[in-house]
């Protein structure tokens, strides 16, 4: 096994060790240890000077949230009888779990499991392999007792004994070594020298890759100094040689990050309309947040409008409640708004509320007197139109009680009347997304789907129905989600822009970076309890029925029809999981969910996940293995990567060797790091490679999509906006738009002939669309002009090649249009164009 692994390393990765290796002719000594709680697992080898030389980290802790966790204490490594390596470590002094992993080569470690124990604070776990291949594990507790755990051969199932163990301290005897002048405790092994060479080669390859991936276009003047000022290339097209590719390669991924939904695409202007903000959403927030008044605001919870939205405000005479929305509200003369709110007055009282739009100086821009009617909570809806004599500027929403007494107020809403297709979304943002011509839309996450802990998993059914019956929740990105933009609105928006819906639901586990629950259990928190998994599976089946069912026979489909959409949404695919650790807990629950879907709806495509990173991450390796072993229930896997421009330049063959018989690829989240023309060009090069591999890569979506410039959680993003307008359509947006509007369903064979030294900076892709029109995409990421001679494809003189260009470090593209003349087209430096024949 080790020899095969050695041969699989990249060519050119050989390196000479810094020291001669001590030991026998064919073996050497290695020491496995941790230099510190945040340093992970390291390997050192013994030199002939009797010195231990560290070669690097091979495994880090993935337990709990970043910053406060991701720690490794007292790692214990065992070389198993089958040649594999087993690892245990303590994650902290309070969690009711330890960490367990295994590896075949000491480099790639299977995603960690965190088996739950009865105690809190699992300290210094050690293990011994039995003759039958199982493992006896012992650990200490904070009170000094010792406990015994039995692990099966595959190191994935752990059973704790009910009684304490009487094992002696000798079980915790370990090796010591001095590395870089410090003494450490760990495990020492004798291994073949070929294994050490394999490890050294691995780290050398990483260093080589790091150097290659640091390439940036700002250095091109020196890098291409010897290149002619003009480069010639020949594109040879073979129209007789085609292959079917995905017709929905480019889509969008919408997640409520960076205030993308509330305060963004969702056009609601009232912040905290439901009075449900809390410190759990964001430190310092409470029910009164975003509201002001001339008197202390009274909040109550008795007999609420809805049990899911228990807080409401109480308005008394002389009170005026004000709301300024997200970073203020803006009004223009004659602008129309749609306002609604729920009010309740004491029985036998007839009261009135004045609803106003008020300018910064207190001037009334628009008003409506609301006369309360009936008993209990009542909804009132009306229009407000700004006076034509008013000046454009900032405003606030104001509610004033006109008579004595009290009135309860909840679910206060203000929308601009002019929303995208009348469906409650901000027009400018929705139009910018629609202009990408996306073939699908993934929602609601991302991390939003699996949430911050089990209690924060996104349940689709809590986001549909009347506003007051939707369950608001903490947003994992540090704010509040009203769920006003819920599954109904997502599906409606997909229909409005002609994109297929791709809802993503949790795989029965929360985000692996979740904070500890009340029992101190962080990360995936053991997943949804198995006794509750059948209910959770049914919840997902109900979602499919809600989207596609017949209202005459299905209560879930009737809910959709009652909301205004009697015809089915024609859902064809769902995602299960997002960037999850491919742990035992995950795999068991994913199988249950995916099997339930396939058993009842075999036509629905199921998209799995392979973690947050590309090859060679542990989740990627294990996720792909799991997907290939479960092809009946996994049609596609969701890959994610955010990388440097240099990575994209040097990995244009990334999918060329993928298994064509394996599940297909959905590149669900990807972007190069930055928002300049350079990023747009390297992403265009990557899209050429995705199109070339369109028989493997079915879909791809840049991420994140939207960012409010004053509330940024992530960088870069595709579209930046503020309260009033779009502030930046990034160069990456232009690349996505170019591909989204020029896709095809057949790939036409072609080849580029140009100097080998610059081949990675130039790319072409030729496709045919559903109307059999030929589309040629050309990318020139060189600092020199490029003339491309086109053979095998007749293009009329004067045919336009249109796209964009610009300086690599610019944040703005320059529209570009050049003409084909005599089967040739000359592209300026740094540009991307499309030719439609």
Question: Can you walk me through this structure?
Answer:
One of its GO terms (molecular function) is alpha-L-arabinofuranosidase activity. It catalyses: Hydrolysis of terminal non-reducing alpha-L-arabinofuranoside residues in alpha-L-arabinosides. The protein has three domains: 27-205, Glycosyl hydrolase domain, family 43 (Tachylectin-2, Chain A), CATH 2.115.10; 251-260 and 424-728, Glycosidases (TIM Barrel, Alpha-Beta Barrel), CATH 3.20.20.80; 291-418, Sandwich (Jelly Rolls), CATH 2.60.120. Residues 1-19 have low confidence and may be disordered. The chain is 17% helix and 33% strand. The two termini are 53 Å apart. α7 (530-548) packs across α8, α7 (530-548) packs parallel to α9 and α12 (677-692) runs parallel beside α13. The protein has 837 residues and is of the alpha+beta class. β38 and β39 (762-768) form a beta hairpin. The strands form nine sheets. It has a nine-stranded mixed sheet. It has an eight-stranded parallel β-barrel with strand order 14-26-29-30-31-32-33-34, surrounded by five helices.
Q: How would the blueprint of this fold be written?
A:
Blueprint (H helix, E strand, L loop, with lengths): L1 H6 L19 E7 L7 E6 L5 E8 L13 E7 L5 E6 L7 E6 L19 E7 L5 E6 L5 E6 L6 E3 L14 E5 L2 E11 H20 L7 H4 L6 E15 L5 E4 L37 E3 L4 E3 L11 E5 L3 E4 L5 E3 L4 E9 L7 E8 L4 E8 L6 E8 L7 E9 L4 E11 L10 H9 L4 E4 L3 H4 L22 E3 L3 E3 L5 H11 L2 E6 L24 H19 L6 H8 L10 E4 L7 H17 L4 E5 L8 H12 L6 E8 L1 H5 L14 E9 L4 H16 L4 E6 L3 E3 L10 E3 L4 E4 L1 H10 L5 E8 L8 E7 L5 E7 L4 E7 L8 E6 L8 E6 L4 E4 L3 E6 L1
Parallel strand pairs: 13-41, 14-26, 14-34, 26-29, 29-30, 30-31, 31-32, 32-33, 33-34, 35-36
Antiparallel strand pairs: 1-2, 1-12, 2-3, 4-5, 5-6, 7-8, 8-9, 9-10, 11-12, 13-38, 15-18, 16-17, 17-25, 18-24, 19-24, 20-23, 20-25, 21-22, 21-24, 27-28, 36-37, 38-39, 39-40, 40-45, 41-44, 42-43, 42-45
Helix pairs in contact: 7-8, 7-9, 12-13
InterPro entries: Alpha-L-AF_C, ASD1_cat, BT_3657-like_N, GH, Glyco_hydro_beta-prop_sf, Glycosyl_Hydrolase_51
GO molecular function, one term: alpha-L-arabinofuranosidase activity
Protein name: non-reducing end alpha-L-arabinofuranosidase
